[in-house]
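Suppose a colleague, Dr. K., hands you the sequence of a protein chain of 259 amino acids and asks what its three-dimensional shape might be. Before reaching for any lab equipment, you can write down a predicted structure in token form. Begin with the sequence itself:
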Amino acid sequence: MPDSDTSIYQPGESILHRMNPVTEIVLATCLSLVVFIVGDYRIPLALALVLIGFVFVARVHGLLLKLYGAVAVPFAFFLLLIQGILLRPADPTALYTFGSITVWESGFEQARLIFLRISVLILAFLLFATTAQPQRMRIALMEKGVPSKLAYVFIASLQIIPEIRDRAGAISEAQQARGLDTTADVRTRLSSIVALLAPLLISTLIVANTRALALNARGFQSEGPRTYLYEVSDPTGERVLRYLGGVAVIAAIGWRILI
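The predicted structure, expressed as tokens, is then:
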């Protein structure tokens, strides 16, 4: 089964698609660490805008912004509700007042910082997942010394959510075709979820077993040198970029300690 069918990877020819997947993993991790270390909201805001620019450069904005919005919008709502309105801060300075509802200034600032940090984390790893081809990613990890089993588990973890989503959609359509109403009241919807879980769990286990048999038949656990279908380059510029990512994390820690 093609990888594009079981992951959110979007084929393309952008600079991010050509980049070594290990470089993308390292940069996404370093960016996420930096924004959680620094306490100034302008740093994650600037990085989020840069990442959104790369989203359009890579031409993956259609899927990526849809996924980001599905997570970020409800997260921002509940964050503002809890941090800005429900929790009364030590400094009760009102930012906005709408009738009996007060948005506290310090709570809003804390919610803004948390939201921007999570946004950078989500954008960085979604950008990585949509531009790194799974096969190249697995080879790049193994060439860096990651055990083949661990590399497979990492790739499978990126593929399992869209795969389960597609399988759940197919099962739901099949059940609707047999007369199960999944759009009625809450009780009927709950019963339809229960009816969905059993075949979804069984089919997922069957697919996992089928994959394990296929991998064993292809010598997945064999020792010795391996040959790969794809050649994943690792130019000097990207190695320097990875080191700079580590330097940025160390600089952020130093900045946080000194300021």
